[in-house]
Write a structure and sequence with these properties.
With 618 residues, this protein is an alpha/beta fold. The protein has 19 helices and 24 strands. Helix 10 packs antiparallel against helix 17 and helix 16 packs across helix 19. The longest helix has 23 residues. It binds fructose -6-phosphate. Fructose -6-phosphate binds next to helix 10 and helix 17.
Length: 618
């Protein structure tokens, strides 16, 4: 996730370059693939930006130093629109170079704004959505002569999620910021003020912070902080004192990256859904540069992935087959090329990988392409190898995942799979546009539902602490609940080092039921009774069967499902969702359970033993 720093101090005070670079270093933990800085000095703006790590920017600055200045803005970029190159790195400038902008988030309507500006003769120097904001704010400033007003007016034109900071050569000592659905905090210093994506950006200088509300614009000078809303009225803000140490600040005050990443899931899913529709509300996946006729001719889809990503693929299979009526297989990438798979020009291969570097998946992609298949990558990391080698890519917008075990990647991979399934269904005529729009509207409600699950996790945490001594835990699910059960088991293995297995509930009677003994904890992910009633009642029977044999049943069911109540030793309720979308909410209690249980056992949940974040060997 991008990191943003803004600083302005008194004339003759500390060099803005030092403060901004230090802030960027403190935010390195957020992950980034390029960085840049702008400093105001001598009535002009001076920028340096470089792809890669901050060391590259340091080198550029030492080769070509910036003049001393007391006002500056910096940015670490996690690529979304356009790869991680020098040109795409922030800041971006207006045509006359007098205004510079850095940005975190996604400007959903950037394509139409860019087209309008291009028609008016604006030449773009990057592939980013941000550059649109730079030109618009620059032009607004020329008209209004006031940076705060220019920012406020332009924010009305932007859709999506954004934090923007702007400086103008003609407004010395001033930094203006704005936020919508993306974080921005203000640091109140003594004779100097700060802006940051989070308090880590300025914690070395001040612990007095102001949280900006939604749709607010802030203007800082060395002596003042003024906040207004997008309508221009003075805004109410919340001041607080930060008492975290610097390392906790990097985790946004959370004890672990994993806890933070689990909590970020509503935002991550919402961001993955952003910018996928055109002005008429139709689903458009501009990134998929595969000819529509090729996608129409596809007669088989094969999803290849490893671990958690493969469970996202399992969910995709249910959705894609139901929506598109195309046979869909899910194959572990490590097995794919060794079994001589039947793949040809009419096969669409979907490779899911958070890192984009997993060697098993990469090898499977190469094999599929050699057989003539088209490959779409679903990936979270711009510029990584798998999207580079695939024919097309659909990026998840989870932001960097630091904890080794996947959490927010899983939910965003599932979300991207839904988008792909709906797009294919629309393109191939299996669903009308209004049907697709209805499902998109249901998906848009999911982030708030995930938030409700997160807000009600007290019971799950208490259960996890009670169960810290468990030696074996089983997970059962059916339909889309089956991959959720497997993911729940994988999380528990990885984080708590407990033997855990996920089964399809219907398979229970074919063997695994022999494992059930007195007190054995069994999680059951129950399908909605509003989906296939017979499926629901079969799972309820499964719960009765295992309970009759002594299992301790922990049941995840939707609110209002009273049939399960008599058989649940613990009932975890989740909001009602359409059947196929349920994994986005039912997975969350299992992540929280595994994380909490592992913490109760004293484990390092961010770096479990023996595991690596990117598995770059076969
Ligand atoms: C589990 C986990 C792994 C990854 C797998 C694939 O928590 O993180 O199972 O899902 O190694 O990694 P990517 O998605 O980077 O290809």
């Amino acid at each position: 996730m991008c990191g943003i720093v803004g600083f302005t101090g008194p004339v003759g005070g500390v060099d803005a370059l030092d403060v901004v670079m230090e802030g960027l270093r403190r935010m390195e933990y957020r992950g980034y693939d390029s960085a840049g800085i702008v400093v105001q000095a001598d009535g002009a703006l001076h920028t340096r930006k470089k792809a890669g790590k901050l060391a590259n920017l340091d080198e550029a600055l030492s080769l070509d130093p910036l003049p001393l200045g007391v006002t500056g803005v910096g940015h670490t970029r996690w690529a979304t629109h356009g790869g991680p190159t020098d040109a795409n790195a922030h800041p971006h400038c207006s045509a006359d170079g007098r205004l510079a902008v850095v940005h975190n988030g996604i400007i959903e309507n950037y394509a139409s704004l860019r087209a309008q500006l291009t028609d008016q003769g604006v030449v773009f120097l990057s592939e980013t959505d941000t550059e649109v904001a730079a030109h618009l704010i620059g032009r607004a400033y020329d008209e209004l002569g006031d940076l705060t007003e220019a920012m406020r007016v332009v924010c009305h034109q932007l859709q999506g999620a954004f934090t923007l900071l702007a400086v103008h050569a003609d407004a010395p000592g001033t930094v203006v910021g704005a936020r919508r659905n993306s974080p921005l905090v203000v640091g109140r210093g003594e004779g100097a003020n700060y802006l940051g994506s989070d308090v880590a950006a300025f914690i070395e200088h001040t612990r007095d912070a102001i949280e900006l509300g939604q749709d607010q614009v802030v203007t800082i000078t060395a002596e003042s902080i003024d906040v207004i809303d997008f309508a221009g009225a003075p805004a109410v803000t919340k001041e607080y004192h930060v008492d975290w140490d610097a390392s906790a600040a990097e985790k946004g005050g959370y004890p672990t990256f994993m806890a933070k990443e689990i909590d970020e899931q509503p935002r991550a899913v919402a961001d993955t859904l952003l910018g996928r529709t055109n002005a008429a509300g139709h689903l458009v996946l501009d990134e998929l540069r595969i000819d529509e006729s090729v996608l129409r001719a596809v007669d088989k889809i094969v999803v290849i992935a490893c671990g958690t990503a493969s469970y996202a693929g399992q969910v995709a299979k249910y959705a894609i087959e139901h929506w598109c009526r195309v046979p869909t297989e899910v194959e572990l990438a490590s097995e794919f090329r060794y079994r001589d798979p039947v793949v040809d020009e009419k096969t669409l291969v979907v490779a899911i990988s958070q890192s984009g570097e997993t060697m098993d998946t990469l090898m499977a992609v190469r094999h599929a392409r050699e057989q003539g298949a088209k490959v779409i990558a679903i990936c979270n990391t711009h510029g990584s190898t798998i999207p580079r080698e695939a024919d097309a890519v659909l990026y998840t917008h989870a932001g960097p995942e630091v904890a080794v075990a996947s959490t927010k990647s899983f939910l965003t991979q599932i979300t991207a799979c839904y988008l792909l399934g709906l797009y294919l269904a629309q393109l191939r005529g299996n669903k009308y546009e209004d049907e697709v729009r209805d499902i998109l509207a249901q998906l848009a409600r999911i982030p708030a539902q995930i938030q409700r699950v997160l807000d009600s996790m007290g019971l799950v945490r208490a259960l996890a602490r009670q169960m810290a001594d468990a030696r074996v835990v089983l997970f059962l699910g059916r339909h889309v609940g089956f991959p959720v059960a497997m993911e729940g088991a994988l999380k528990l293995k990885e984080l708590a080092y407990i033997h855990a297995e996920g089964f399809a509930a219907g398979e229970l009677k074919h063997g695994p039921i022999a494992l059930i003994e007195q007190g054995l904890p069994v999680f059951v992910v129950v399908p909605s009774p509003r989906g296939r009633d017979s499926l629901h009642s079969k799972v309820v029977s499964n719960i009765q069967e295992i309970r009759a044999r002594g299992a301790r049943t922990i049941v995840i069911a939707e609110e209002g499902d009273d049939d399960v109540r008599p058989y649940a030793d613990t009932l975890i309720q989740v909001p009602r969702t359409p059947t196929l979308l349920a994994p986005l909410v039912t997975t969350v209690p299992l992540q929280v359970f595994a994380c909490e249980l592992a913490l109760a056992k004293g484990h390092d949940v961010d770096q479990p033993r023996n595991l690596a974040k990117s598995v770059t060997v076969e």
